[in-house]
Amino acid sequence: MEHGSFSDNSKSTFSLTDEDHTLANAVRFTLNQDPRVSFCGYSIPHPSENRVNIRIQTTGAPAREVLKDACQDLMMMCQHVRSTFDTVVADYKTRNPSEEMDTDDSDNVG
Amino acid sequence: MAKKDEPMSEGEEETEAESISESESESQSLSGGGESKGGLEYIMSLPDVPTKLPPHMELQRTRVFCNADAPIHTDTVQYSGAFAALGEDNSFRLDHFRKNFRIEVMRYSEDDMEFDMIGIDPALANAFRRILIAEVPTMAIEKVLIANNTSVVQDEVLAHRLGLIPISVDPRLFEYADNNAPNERNTIVFKLHAHCERVKGERRRHTVKANDLKWLPNGSEFLLESGDSNSNSTSKPKTHTSFSCSQDSLPEFSNNPIGFKGKLNDIIIAKLGSGQEIELEAHAVKGIGKTHAKWSPVATTWYRMLPEVVLLEEIEDEMAEKLKSKCPVGVFDIEDIANGKKKLTVARPRACTLCRECIREGEEGEKRVSLRRVKDHFIFTIESTGALPPDVLFTEAVKILESKCERVISDLS
Amino acid sequence: MGLKQDSSEEHAKQNQDCFECWFPFYTFDNLSDPMEKWLSFGKQLPYDSGIDKQFLAAPIKSSVDKYQLVPEFLKVRGLVKQHLDSFNYFVNVGIQKIVSANDRIVSSVDPSIYIRFNSVKIGEPSIPRDGVSEKITPQLCRLSDMTVHSRKSYPKIRLEKKNVIIGRMPIMLRSCCCVLYGKDEAQLAELGDVDTGTTKKRIIIDSDKKGNINASVTSSTEERKSKTVILMEKGQMYLHLNQFVNKIPIMIVMKAMGMESDQEVVQMVGRDPRYSDLLLPSIRECAKHGVYTKQQALEHLEAKVKKSTYSGASSEKVFFLFFVRVRRDSFRAKCIYVAVMLRRMIDAYLNKDTMDDKDYVGNKRLELSGQLISLLFEDLFKSMIEEVKKRMDMNMARLSRSSRFDPLQYVHGDSISAGLERTLSTGNFNIKRFRMDRKGMTQVLARLSFIGTLGHMTRISPQFEKSRKVSGPRALQPSQWGMLCPCDTPEGEACGLVKNLALMTHVTTDEEEGPLISLCYCLGVEDLELLSGEELHTPNSFLVIFNGLILGKHQRPQRFATAMRKLRRAGKIGEFVSVFVNEKQGRVYVVPDGSGDKNCSILKTGSINKRCVYIASDGGRVCRPLVIADKGISRIKEHHMKELLDGVRTFDDFLRDGLMEYLDVNEENNALIALYEGKSTPATTHIEIEPFTILGICAGLIPFPHHNQSPRNTYQCAMGKQAMGNIAYNQLFRMDTLLYLLVYPQRPLLTTKTIELVGYDKLGAGQNATVAVMSYSGYDIEDAIVMNKSSLDRGFGRCIVLKRCSAIRQKYENNTEDRIIRPNREGDGAGRMQILDDDGIAAPGEIIRPGDIYINKETPIITRGPTVSPAGLPDRAYRPSIQTFKGPEGESCVVDKVALFNDKNNNLCIKFSIRHTRRPEVGDKFSSRHGQKGVCGTIVQQEDFPFSERGICPDLIMNPHGFPR
Fold first, then answer.
1. Phi/psi at C32 (5° precision)
2. How many domains, chain A?
3. Which fold is adopted by the domain B138-295?
4. Where does the record place the DNA-directed RNA polymerase subunit 2 hybrid-binding domain (chain C) (predicted)?
5. Phi and psi at residue C582, in whole multiples of 5°?
6. What does DSSP assign to residue C94?
7. Range of A77's domain?
8. Three-state secondary structure string covering chain B
9. A21 and chain C: CB distance < 8 Å anywhere?
């Protein structure tokens, strides 16, 4: 999955199968904001292949670790988004109970 | 089309990559220039050197400018060192994100919702959108066993139509079928038997709708043809499914039968002429929208950046009327000011669809009104097909992104 | 919009007293072209301060919305009415004429014995089955590969009064003999055969031929067709005729016809010294041959006559300009004709501008199926008569006659039936009697799309070969305005040669000449034979030419023409009779013969047209209806249109009341036609009904064609015929060899008036797509398009392909027959026989894979020799002759339907329709309605697609670089 040089672990290309822009672009975003990264980018070599290549060059830290951290960051962000969303929606539902009743769940099942 | 530039985020990778290198070189040259004049430290210590970004750059960083010809400053600056020369740290800080991130629900109903996501990067907002469309699983009819079809609708077409009907059932209660035999944990079976009676001297028509599909909690009723010769003695004849127990005995479905919700019941499957008949069994399985659009849980989902309409000068009287009438969505309003004069105000900037009618007159128009978008404020809309409520879909989508990250992490270590 | 209309009405009201008011309503309609109107209201609605108030205040020429006439016209005439008209004419009139012209078969042995055909009648379509004739419907024939036939029977007298069947006639669908005739759509639906147009198995190519006079008279009673050519070589004039070995000096011909005096000839041609100068060499040539008298001339000619079947013929029997009737042995009419020909030729020689334009649409005649079939029938009928006569004579000559002599036994229709069928199926018209040998005259009607079918039926193919590298005939002719579609022509070798009829075009059929001729004489035409050569060319007189025949001359041509037109508008003479006054100086049709010699040119007796009045009633002319205007004011008023809408007035009433008339291309030259009523001037004589009717059916489907680059419209005309969608209302019951259907065809969101007229909104093709215009992914270069996978998942562009397989249970001469047997359900062959029913025939609805057997048939090993009883044949006397399905691997096909029927030879025939539903793939072709085609370059997931501010995601993306500029 990882194609890098053996001598220098600060530059590496990671090839993720069964992934696309969804993950790669999000990871690239978090990678970019990491001060240890000097370059990062991704590409989909061919549209008929379910594969995405992520290239990372760091200022010295091992690329693998940087990618892991980026994924970790992304997960944390997601968790925060989820918790925020859940509270806000719950909040909204308690504030507007009538609106929820609006929807037709009377003839719920056919 | 140009107005969609920003939302069409698929194209943005390249522009962003470019912008990174640009801002990089920019900052280098800036710092280089600084050094030649006596060192960065010295300059930074001067009283009139801002520690924050200058206002025009801050504006460019946070807003897209939609000019009459094309939008500009469309990039989001992601690189951690982009503003290093200006003393601004652009690197990622989770606490910073936590502090700034907000969600506001604008509208919520059983099958659609609109909420504002503030303080998030388009890369993430887009990831959520993509996952919602393509990767949140639902149940959809995949296999149709046709016993009799004398209608004008061809078998394949009928099967295709059945597949596209959204089933109101929580897909989280099911497993992926993959190559396993169909059982009560991965398959829902429906039966359809419609018939249009032939009456002499009458031209009868019968419309088959989704609610004619009847749930079979015990699985398929069609017997497997090859089974009858050797399994005569066994008590249970072999069918196309192997359910170990009835689905309605499971706690999830015991008093919540599987079917179609509300308007989904009225989806037309076929129309029958007199004497025509359809008899079939439909097997629904779990899948994702990437494989086929029928498994997509949303009719559509999309986001747009918050529009910001700024009047650059006081617009009065005739011009005000003119601008107000130009806007097809009614962004502007007119306010009476003293001595019978009228003034244009921006009443509903959120309604702006970026048609740019108000700035169409060339430079004149652009000097009067500035159309902008807030780069980190997304108005996110989810229209569910009816299987799951939209808020659950969003939570599921975020979870899927998390699991993707987890997978990468576990793969790497 | 509302604003503007109000204001217009206001203006109108204000001005009502200051101008003469013709109509109570004033609207903006027809003020300008509809598009202009549309644009203007978009642009200047609230702020139209810059508009010329004067213009707005000016009285608006009131106009009537005449659009409703177009659907009414099409209701009366139908889109492909020209074929039906022509066929109906043949069936009702032509066939009777042919038969009555040759109604007697007289035995040469005993002239008192003869057979006479009294009348001819075409019966109902039927087929003989087991001795009983059964009525049939086209649907039945379509399934059983037969042609719709009708019996022709002739009641005859003399011997017995019984109907004699003389042949079986293929019937054009929807013609007056067809069962579908006169049925409304609901009835037709029950017969299982409905198109909004018409259905027809084969069409006969309409070929246009040059309007030379010879050609236009072939259908007269004489059984010949000749081509008379006068040519000029080295300053001398010759007559070229097929009967002669070589060309004859023209003066000899004149002398042979009794014009012995050279002076008379010169006088006939015209006294201008230039004419006589040019005639001089010919006169000299004649003298050189030593021909001075009629007798000498005749002898000279006799020597030149080809020795053929007409060996004993004297020169009088040489049919030369035979259409000019020889009355009481007077050749005067012929002489005048030749003289007029000579004069035109000399005119052309002196002045090249007077040559005829052979691409002029008015000089062309279309041949429709009725005319061609009538030629064919005439030939076959005469052959049959000859045959009967020969047999009769043979029988009579025999002395001992055992049985009672019944000449009727020889009258049977096999030769006619077979001849008709053979010619129609091969398309080779080889009629010796008329020296006609043309190939490819019949074509199988394209049935792959509804528009393709309609387009095919309005097509006009040229007679000559397409390989000629000429530009003249290919160029757009100004005279084809309104008659032939300016857009619809194929690309490539047939470009400009193959044309299509416009929406309102009508093709005339022949009309009775006799009454018209006598009418002309009544209206003051001076008889040709009473005129001297001198009188013929007096400056103020006009020759009157009827169907290419010189009737005489008239002193007051305009008055004559007006009288004729009045009669026509009053319905006293046929509505398609054209009256055309040519006031131009002479134009003669001269074609250089290619030798490069300037002196050598051939004059074909094209239209002889210097200062002439032409009356035409012949068939094959194209014409179209126009509204008559008096001093620029339309005769059709608002109340007429209201009556039309209320259904109390029909299109024919408009014609009968003299509100409208048909003009052919020649007569159009005498008219000043305004495009809109508002643009008419006092000189205007006619007003167009609707401008869009200059386009044909295919071009009419293009929205806003006037905003397109011109070739795009032409491309679209070719492509519209390939569009998938619906084919006919009976499409699901058809058993065509190949059928493409769209699963979800849609009515176009943007329709044109033509679309509504031809029923494209009911039998549509194609789907409405949401399209983004952007460069995307690089798989869209060179007009390729990117498609949305989710759209395809949801049914966009899904189509059904139906293919046909068939099998015959053959009967053999030894009374054995193929048999279809029950499949064996076990054993090694069972797997391939899974889809068979117990009767050995594949069951509809079964999935059929390549290699599957669809009919379990066995053939007897011995099929010749002595008769055996088929029942007693043991199993081993049969060998299997199963038929397996050969389809592409990986496609899942389904047996759609199975039809069993008896074919022509009464064998059981089984047809299978195999269905395959497919979704668009990379490489499939898609097109807009503007000649913008492209292949699908890649299919992309929906999440990778752009979306709009309102969440709309396109179905496909087109590259902006592919747009024409």
1. -140, 180
2. 1
3. RNA Polymerase Alpha Subunit; Chain A, domain 2 (2.170.120)
4. 698-964
5. -105, 115
6. I
7. 2-97
8. CHHHCCCCHHHHHHHHHHHHHHHHHHHHHHHHHHHHCCCHHHHHHCCCCCCCCCHHHHHHHHEEEECCCCEECCCCCCCCCCCHHHCCCCCCCHHHHHHHCEEEEEEECCCEEEEEEECCCHHHHHHHHHHHHHCCCEEEEEEEEEEEECCCCCHHHHHHHHHCCCCECCHHHCCCCCCCCCCCCCCEEEEEEEECCCCCCCCCEEEEEHHHCEECCCCCCCECHHHHCCCCCCCCCCECCCCCCCHHHCCCCCCCCCECCHHHHHCEEEEEECCCEEEEEEEEEEECCCCCHHHCCEEEEEEEEEEEEEECCCCEHHHHHHHHHHCCCCCEEEEECCCCCEEEEECCHHHCCCCCHHHCCCHHHHHHEEEEEEEEEEEEEEEECCCCCHHHHHHHHHHHHHHHHHHHHHHHC
9. yes
* C777/chain B closest Cα distance in angstroms: 9
SS3 C788: strand
How far apart CA C312 and CA C294 sit, in angstroms, is 19
C-beta atoms of B401 and A19 within 8 A? no
Take residue A37 and report the two structure tokens written for it.
Answer: 């990264």
Q: Tell me the residues of chain A between 57 and 96 that have a Cβ less than 8 Å away from chain B.
A: 64, 67-68, 71-82, 84-86, 88-89, 91-93, 96
Tell me the Ramachandran region of residue C834: left when phi exceeds 0, alpha when psi lies from -120 to 50, beta otherwise: alpha
Distance (Å, whole) CA C21 – CA C61: 9
Q: Is C779 on the interface with A (CB under 8 A)?
A: yes
- B262/A contact by beta carbon, under 8 A: yes
Classify residue A104: in a domain, yes or no: no
Q: Inter-chain contact A89–B90, Cβ cutoff 8 Å?
A: no
Q: Categorise residue A60: left if φ over 0, alpha if ψ from -120 to 50, beta otherwise.
A: left
State the smallest CA–CA distance between residue C770 and chain A in angstroms. Answer: 23
- Give the domain CATH number at A50: 3.30.1360.10
Alpha-carbon distance C676 to C687, whole Å? 6
CA distance B45 to B386: 61
Domains of chain C: 2-57 (no CATH), 76-206+368-464 (3.90.1100.10), 218-362 (3.90.1110.10), 506-592+610-694 (3.90.1070.20), 709-798+922-962 (2.40.270.10), 807-908 (2.40.50.150)
Domain ranges in chain B are 1-91, 92-136+297-413, 138-295
Contacting A residues, span 1-40, partner chain B, CB-CB under 8 Å: 1-2, 14, 16, 19-23, 25-30, 32-35, 37
- β-bridge mates for residue C527, sequence order: C552
A110 occurs within a structural domain: no
* CA pseudo-torsion sign C883, C886, C892, C898: negative
Residue A40 lies in a domain: yes
Take residue C179 and report the two structure tokens written for it. 């069962």
The position carrying tokens 């509302």 is C2
On whether residue A106 sits in a domain, the answer given is no
> Domain B92-136+297-413 adopts which CATH fold?
Gyrase A; domain 2 (3.30.1360)
CB atoms within 10 A of CB C503: 26
